[in-house]
Amino acid sequence: MLEEVQSSGAxxxxxxxxxxxxxxxxxxxxxRWLFRLRGVLAAPPVLAGxxxxxxVGLSLVWWQAGGALAIVLATLLRLWAQxxxxxxxxxxxxxxxxxxxxLTRNPFYIANAMLCGGAVAMCGRPWLAGISFxxxxxxxxxxxxxxxxxxxxxxxxxxxxxxxxVPRWLPRLRGVRTATMATGHLTAALRAEFHCxxxxxxxxxxxxxxxxxxx
Length: 215
Prior knowledge:
mainly alpha, Four Helix Bundle (Hemerythrin (Met), subunit A), two-stranded antiparallel sheet, 59% helix, globular
């Protein structure tokens, strides 16, 4: 299936409205080696937020609270998605169309962008938090283009149907009725996603570390 898409000079793309259309092959698709570094590519603004000092006079407590809330919500979204995608679980992988995947095709990447923005917000850099969120989405947009071609080859017609019905990013409200919650894998999913909450720790410890260093 993938070879047919490539040889015809066309690729399947989908707008945020959820409708799939055929168009000319994109000028550039992320190579496989770069796809494997997707987490590293999304990280630079987060690292900058951890290193740069907080803005003087900014109410750090409020930004820490808001950033922590974003991290918690992102972890819950990943936890929900994990129970339907089985990304880190020892379960047979199938095409995920239930749970958050009934609303949007990429809940994991949306959650990752929230984690990036939340971490930087906790560090007291509000403008950089927005940049971090947008930068992560731009990186993951390229990642998704790579994955979609691979998933067309793996799942064929069912995935093409899914592309037509569910938007890439913006959640569809009509999918709420079919967005089931748990699947019986909550405990395993908790073990797989608990590490996301650990991102809060270095953000909280950062002001004391800077004070100790005299920065």
